[in-house]
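Structure, all two chains, one model.
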Amino acid sequence: MGPPSTSKWMRGVALLVLLGGMGLGPCTSEKELRAAEAKRDALLASTRPKSDFWPEVERKGTAVKAEKAATAELAKETAQNQALAQEIAGLEQRAGDARSQHAAADTALAGAKAELERARAERARRDETLAGFASRQRAGGPS
Amino acid sequence: MKGTGFLLLCALLVACGPDRVAEIDAEIEKLSAERVELSVVTAARSEADAAEHRLAEAQAGLDRVREEGKRLANEKAQLEAAIAHEGELVEQARGEIAAAQQATATELAEIDKKDGEIAQARARAMGVREQAAVLAREIRPGDPAWATERRVKSVQEFIAKVARDYPDDPVVAELARSDEQPSADPAEAGALAAQKAARLRDRFTRIYDLETPEVSAGAKAPAAPK
């Protein structure tokens, strides 16, 4: 087998490949391609990038964490308010007692002042009596 | 040879074109790894929204509780201030009561002292009045001269004593001075002495209110002279 026979052989192979390729066409069919594209499009339509998903998860986590803290704070401050309300109830009782004591003290003071005024008036009456003795004693005129 | 190579190249180009399906499959596989179902994203968004809504409600509740806490703290402070103020007022009132009671006690002591002075003054005056009344009654027009002279003298001595005891009384002083020049007529002297004794009795009765009901009834019984 010399060079002419090799060339002939290669030409034959090329022709065979060409004929074979023309007869089979592309590696896949148009139908399969469209199906694959449809599948891809459906996937794109029914999904979202994970970059859309994780922020939502993070947002939820942040909110839940903050809610938990707020709820705990709410419970704490509610308990404090209840304790304050109890203190206020006690203070209202004490304030009522204090007002009663004040009223009683005012009444007693008014009585003490009235007693003092009566005593002063009585003393003044006696001073007038003694002064009357002295002034009439010093006065002349008819006896 | 060249023609054969070209023919072989053309055959290879036509027969071995790129496989698009495989590429798309690979793309699908990559997308599947990079993407998540829309429903999952929607659910995650809904859960995040719900969590934020609950958070907003919790914070609103917390705000309300904090406002309530401020109101309660303010109310507590006001009550404490009111109690303290009432306590101060009570203490102040108690102090004023004690002062008023002390002043009243002082006044009552003064009243007792003045009552004693009044009783003593009236007792002395009562003695003068009674003695003057007795002396005035004892001088009678029909008595013998010696008896009248003796009673006139008693009146003169008594008036002199009263004048010493009541040096500020101008009327008593004047009665005492008029006794320095007695009448020579015993009857006239007796009548004059009786008149002076009666004047003395009436003057002391008037000056010391000796006939007022309370003194006469003994409600303010004069104390014995000291």
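Chain B touches chain A through 90 residues (CB under 8 Å).
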